[in-house]
Amino acid sequence: MEEFRVGLENRCNREEVVGFLASIFGPDPKIARKNFNLVFDYEPSVSTRNMVYARSSKNQLVGMLRIVERTVLVDGAALNCGGVTSVAVAENWRHQGVCSALMDFAHKVLEDRGCPVSLVFARKAVDGLYERYGYSPVGRYIDLRLDVSVKDTTGVQLRPFQKKDLDFCMMSYIKYYHQLTGSYKREQGIWDFLIHRFAEGKRQFQLFVCQAEKRNIGYGVVLENTLVEFCLAPEFFSSCPSMFESLAIKSIGLHPRHPFFQYARAHWNTIFSERFAVHGGYMARFIHTPAVIRWVSQRLKSRAKRLGLQNHFVNVLDYRIDLKTGQVTPQQGKDDIIFSDFNHAVQMILGFVGPELISGAQINASKPWLLNLFPHLYFQTSKCDEF
Q1: Model-level pTM?
Q2: Of the candidates 337, 311, 346, the residue with the CA atom closest to the CA atom of residue 325
Q3: 33 found inside a domain
Q4: 236, 267, 298: which is the final residue of a domain?
């Protein structure tokens, strides 16, 4: 078995990297090359500090991955995450430990940076791969099929997005998405990348702006025939049937707690379906569990105050959390929630599910309020943000 080395490099040979990734991620290398050039031009996390390479003893590039810096919002609180993407190994170097070495190195980089959680988005073709590296599934895919015959006369107009609309869209996203668990906090650079991505994928993505009396009142993103992102004041929801007809929208793929998703289920005929990706899709891994517990302790402290539970404590994942102060200390006693599978612990901490929905979980019967302390927040990330 030929030796190889893994690490960061001071310089990035863009042509080498783009060519290598395009050869792996086809099936059409020309399209793949175009997509990766778009990433290099606009994705804000692209830098030498986020490129992990595997090279042979002859200095040949045989594998690589990228670290993508993102902030995920959980119940309105920011959680710094290190996404891992563009994981690629040359075909003749597979099954020789290259991928494991790349992932181990990336996890060490994230730990050194104080990043408590890592995320990956696994294509269906590699289902099961990232489970080997400690990732737990948090991928939920919602489809709400619409059967709407109602017409409206509210006077809402649609037009394609223009650059002058960016500030409005950024503010609207903050207003409507920052309380939806699983949403990303989008800085200017991420928005710029998304806008260029939408422009390059015209046949897939449509970014539109809603107007009333020539005033911007909302925006939306359509992927094929599905509404995947939407910001609009509730008083205009009744105007949506006509809008959707003009855009050939057939279904909604929004967060279950999105106000428009809830409106549609309450007012129109719909068919709801949900796919939970057990072995792929979005997946999460705790890089540093103590840091995760310290982060979640502040959320528990806030919830406990609202619920009147400040004089209690909770034991979880071998740590004791004082609900009055948020102080975290290691403990060797019995946890209040015992999981049969660590995947379930990751899902509960991130709000993907509540403890009452976890199969095989043993919950301390003397603390029934635990179900309210760890609510089901429906962790879901916008399709626009899949890296």
Answers
A1: 0.91
A2: 311
A3: yes
A4: 267
